[in-house]
Structures are given as C-alpha cells and as structure tokens.
Hints:
The chain is α/β, with parallel strands linked by helices. It contains seven helices and five strands, in the order ααβαβαβαβαβα. It is 42% helix and 14% strand. This is O-methyltransferase.
Amino acid sequence: xxxxxxxxxxxxxxxxxxxxxxxxxxxxxxxxxxxxxxxxxxxxxxxxxxxxxxxxxxxxxxxxxxxxxxxxxxxxxxxxxxxxxxxxxxxxxxxxxxxxxxxxxxxxxxxxxxxxxxxxxxxxxxxxxxxxxxxxxxxxxxxxxxxxxxxxxxxxxxxxxxxxxxxxxxxxxxxxxxxxx
Length: 181
C-alpha cells in the first residue's frame, strides 16, 4: 500500500464537514476521526471493513469519505438487523450509499466474505474481537488494523498477539481518543 498525501489531504476536510453534520445526532465525539480518514485515504485503501456495535458513527462517516476518495468500498458489519435499516436511511440523505455496504450478523461469520482487506476497524466492545482479528483476510501487500474502544492496559497485548504472524502487518498504539486524553 503506497502513501498518497493528496488523497489524505482531500479526505481530511470532507470528514470534518460530514462529522459536523452528523454530530447533531450526538452518537459519539468525532475526535481523531479525521486522522483515521486521512490515514485510510492516504494508504489508498480499497476495501475497508468496520465492525461496530453502534451503527453509523462519525468513524463510519470518516471511513466512507476515505472510501469515496480512493474509489473503494466500506463494509460496515452490524450485529443487529434493526441497525441496518436505520443506518441505510441516514446514508441516503448524505450521498454515501454508493460507498458503504451494510452487512449484519455475527462478525466472525460475516468476515469470511471479504478478501484482501486493506483497512479494518474493530470495535473492541465486540466480545469475540480476538477471534475476529485472527479470521480477517488481510491484503498480503499490507494492511492497517485499527482497534476502536481500546482500554490501554487490558486490550493492547492480546490484540497485538492475535495479529502477530499476519504478513506485512505492524502493530503500533497511537495515543488518540478519549481513553488516552
């Protein structure tokens, strides 16, 4: 995965704008979402996967902006069917329905459908996140995996251990988000 500063720079302000619109719903604070959008776009990620417990969030929007920038696709895996319909309605009004595929079910079963993932975000509130991280089919030329809602002491080592052995994957903890402030 090559770095594209132009794609990163274009995704950043678009994410700021859409997160500002989405913030009216108060789903979560859009801190660091701009960075993740720029990272995904800058890495020219084509297949992005988000496993979330919350439905559409500012992070989903950030990844969708990156997908739109790179001509890629964001797959948002939701655990409940009701979240899909609610999320689909929101997407229709924000010109993002063409870049987001909403899927639902047990993420450990659904993830098998997606091959060569370039950029993944796993919500660590999902009980089986370690199993899920081992099952992901990551792009062999390089991938980025983001752990969302990481509790610094409890979660860091097990996730890194689960990902160890995946080709062309390095693990780094960045002190961004509410837990680190």
